[in-house]
Each structure stands twice: as structure tokens, then as C-alpha cells.
Amino acid sequence: MEACATALRRELTGAFSDDEKLNEERLLPGQKRLRVVVANPLHEESYQRIIEREPRVTLLNDLSLLPPIRHRADFSGDPEFRRTPEQQAEFEALLDSADALLGIPDVDAAALGRAVRSNPRLRWVHATSAGGGQQVGRAGLSPSHLERVTFTTSAGVHGSPLSEFVVLGILSGAKDLPRLLQLKSQRRWSERWMSRQISRQKVLILGFGGIGRAVARSLSALGMSVTATSRRADAEHPDVDRFVNVDELTDVIGDMDAIVCALPGTDLTKGLVGERLLARVKPGATFVNVGRGTVVDESALIAALEDGRIGFAALDVFEVEPLPAESSLWTMPNVLISPHTAALAVDEEAAVVELFADNATRLLDGHPLVNVVDTVEFY
User: Fold this and answer.
1) Cis ω for the linkage preceding 264 (within 30 of 0)
2) Each residue of 128-177: pLDDT tens digit?
3) How far is residue 169's CA from residue 177's CA, in Å, rounded to a whole number?
4) Of residues 27 and 183, which shows the higher confidence score?
5) Among 228, 296, 343, 376, which residue's CB has the most CB atoms within a 10 Å radius?
6) What pLDDT sits at residue 232?
7) Which of the following is catalytic: 35, 121, 123, 292?
8) Do 182 and 307 share a structural domain?
9) Residue 264 belongs to domain spanning
10) Percentage of the chain with pLDDT > 90?
11) Is residue 375 part of a domain?
12) pTM for the full predicted model
């Protein structure tokens, strides 16, 4: 890692002229190089892989200005890391020299806003998370900034591990995991009971982006009847039996044995899963959230868990994170809590790097980028 850091620091020492720094036409199709500042910590092999995949990229970084990396895909780094005022000035100067950023600086909307406003040459920012659009929305950028800079996310990278968490949640609800754990803790051999077969169940997937598609693939393979939301009236997918519009949810949700939320956090989705919708669920339904916590009205969900409308919930995201210690969700036996960690996997960083490299090639060759953020709804 030190060898890599030294090489990258050398890239920063006066190798670029003032004329080049002022050139705002460098991102036209056919350009020779793309200056990329890596704004989130990565492992050395990730730097190497980007250069292998797209040699026209010049990676710029100073590892002393980034928080130490603790594990794979630790894009935020050590939360105890602090820069000195001098280091902060160096970091911002580095960001202001980029054509593109790999990662949102400090994974912070305010830092992203500063970087975009201060660097007129910046044309592309790639977020290492699937939910980077929310940070773009919170960055307070003007329409001209949003038009100048293209923002992309790592949506789709996390689909497989999140779909496995969904399977865990639905199986836990169907096989009554809380009851099994309670009996084990009591060392009690109870009477036998009938469990539910998920192959005979119906599931509703809220949100059919990259995560929703991965979830549908996994659940369809297990024999579940899959209904999913779509804005398109003519939507079709081999893993989905039926598509419905969001306006139809209250009409169909009562038939569902399980509900999976894979929606992004936007103004339109905020509180969508609330009292009105939960009043119509089939008693004992399983609820899994791998989208965003803001989509769910937690007070309404807690009420549904208490009265049995929701029999079991597996939650990876919450309205407030970290989940406050006083939240009653912590003490509910029919709730599985994951600290927003279900998407993490050993190959996540590699997948993010491959996606970034592919988009860098697209940009350099003048082709449309994938996973572009909608700068109206910010997802």
C-alpha cells in the first residue's frame, strides 16, 4: 500500500500545467486522459484494476488525506479520522483539480456541494453506494451545477447480498424464527406446529431497480409468486408474475404473505409504507426493508408489529441511523435488526471498481453512462 501511496503522491507534484488546469474541454469524446481524484479509501488492488481496465485514467490521491480503511468496501473509513486544517486545505485543492471524482468526498453531502461549486472543470462524480443520489439531493446544488456534472451510483452492485438478506427475512417469518429462538432459550420441547411454505406464498416487491430485480430472481427461484411495482403499464419481467402501479397498492397488499421494500429514499417515497398501507396487510405478513428507512413510517410499523398485522420484520435500514437505543424495535422478538450492513460483501469493492472503470471508458468514448442519478427525484 505504501508503494501505491508514494506513486500516487508523485502524480500530484507539479505534473500538470496551468493551461491544462484551466482547460474545460477535456471531457469531450476522444480526449486522451481523464483526471480522477479518488475521494474514498480503496485497497491498492482497486487502484491497479482501474488502470488495467482503463489506461486513459490518471488516478490522483494522497492516502494521508483519507481515513484509514478498516475492511473491504470501507468507503467511509475510520470514523475517528480527522484532518488538520492544513490537510483539509490540501484535500480540497486536490478535489478541485479533478475532471471526475471516484466517491463522494467524506461520504458527505456538504463536502460534495463544496467540491462541485469550487471546481468548474468537474464533470462526473461516481458514488460508491447505491443511494448516492440522496447525497446529491442534499448537496444544495443549483440547476446549472446539476446540468454540468453527471452523477452516477453503484446501484446493482449490492443486489445479490441484499436479495440473500431478503430470503433470510422471509424464511425467518415463514418458519417462525422468533418462536424457535424462544423455545431454545427456554430449553423447552413444545408441541409441534405447522410452518408456512414460501413456495406457496405471494410476495410484493416495492421498487424494481437493480435490487428489486435481484430480489425477484431469488424469490421466483424459490417458487414464490412475485408482484412488483412499476411506473410502466406494460412492464414485463421473467421473474415477475404481475406488475402494479403504486396507486394500486392498497388493492393488492391484502393478498400478500410478504412485502419487500427496495425503494430509494425520495420525496415521493417518504412514508409510503405507513398507517394507510399497513392497515390493509394480511395478518401475520412478513415485512423486509432493504431500500431506505425513510420509506417506512416506523411508528406505524411498530404498531403493526405489536398488533400482529406484521408477524415478522427484517430491517436493514431505519428512519434514523444508528437506530436510537430507545427505539422499541430493539426489544421486539418479532424483529430482526441489521445495522445497515446487509449489502456488504467481500467482493463489493471489486464490483464498484469494475462499474466505475466501465463508466470511465464510456465517458472517454462518448457513450452514455450507466446508473445516472435522476436530478429531479435524486435516485
Assistant:
1) no
2) 998 899 999 999 999 999 999 999 999 889 999 999 999 999 999 999 99
3) 9
4) 183
5) 296
6) 84
7) 292
8) yes
9) 159-337
10) 85
11) no
12) 0.84
- Specify the amino acid at residue 80: E
Catalytic one of 117, 340, 362, 367: 340
Query: In which order are the strands placed within the sheet that holds 225-229?
Result: 242-244, 225-229, 202-206, 258-261, 285-289, 310-315, 335-337
Q: Are residues 252 and 301 in the same domain?
A: yes
The answer to whether 286 and 261 are in contact (CB under 8 A) is no
Q: Residue 27: pLDDT above 50?
A: no
Residue appearing with cell numbers 424469490: 219
Taking residue 158's Cβ as centre, other Cβ atoms within 10 Å add up to 25
Nearest CA among 201, 193, 205, 191 for reference residue 171: 201
Give me the residues paired with residue 296 across strands. 273
- Report whether 109 contacts 139 (CB < 8 A): yes
Question: Are residues 243 and 102 part of one domain?
Answer: no
Catalytic residue at 340?
yes
Cα(338)–Cα(344) distance, integer angstroms: 11
Q: How many domains does the chain have?
A: 2
Start-end of H helices in the chain: 2-11, 18-22, 44-53, 85-95, 109-118, 132-138, 143-148, 159-174, 177-186, 210-221, 249-252, 275-278, 298-307, 348-364
- Cell numbers 441511523 correspond to 321
Residue located via cell numbers 422468533: 178
Do residues 281 and 253 lie in contact, with contact meaning Cβ atoms separated by under 8 Å?
A: yes
